[in-house]
Amino acid sequence: MPQPGQASQANNQQLQAMLELERRNELPDDLRPQLQAFRAQGLAPAAPTAIQDQNLEKAANIYGTADKASKLVGFGTTGMSGSVMSHVPGSDAKGLRGYIDTLKANLAFDELAKMRAQSPTGARSAALPKARRSCFPARLPRSIPVFPTIN
């Protein structure tokens, strides 16, 4: 006999299957009440919120950008040669610079969101220190390819 807060092995397998279907947005409507009952008994985690989904998606995008940037690090993309080549459109060094600027911008937006949340009036971009505003990359002409193709 399972203890309160514990599911039998069959119920646990059914619960895991329902959670996976819910994660993929494929849970049939007739199973939703049963999943809610599992949640009410404390046997299943709470349903993910839209904010949690956005945070996971953002984290995956940042991780992907960092992964692409790390694949470009090398002799021709860093140091003095990388500094020079970062101004050549289509070069790996230019792509690495673009990925790093993207990561910096993500950090700057997170910092701005924290400042707005902590400010009673809401922080304005004009109130940002010049050093932080420099984290936002300048707009590039659309004709210049920034990111190289990575296999």
List keywords for this structure.
56% helix, 2 domains, 0% strand, 151 residues, mainly alpha
Structure description:
With 151 residues, the protein is an all-alpha fold. The protein has six helices and no strands. The chain has two domains: 1-47, no CATH class; 50-133. The model is unreliable at 138-145 (pLDDT under 50).
Short description:
The chain is mainly alpha-helical. The chain contains six helices and no strands.
Given the C-alpha coordinates, what overall shape results?
A: elongated
SS content category:
mainly alpha
Intertermini distance: 54 Å
Portion of residues in beta strands equals under 5%
Question: In sequence order, what are the helices and strands, one letter per element?
Answer: HHHHHH
- Give a count of the beta strands, DSSP E runs of length 2 or more: 0
Rg computed from alpha carbons, rounded to a whole number of angstroms: 23 Å
Number of folding domains?
2
Mean pLDDT over all positions? 75
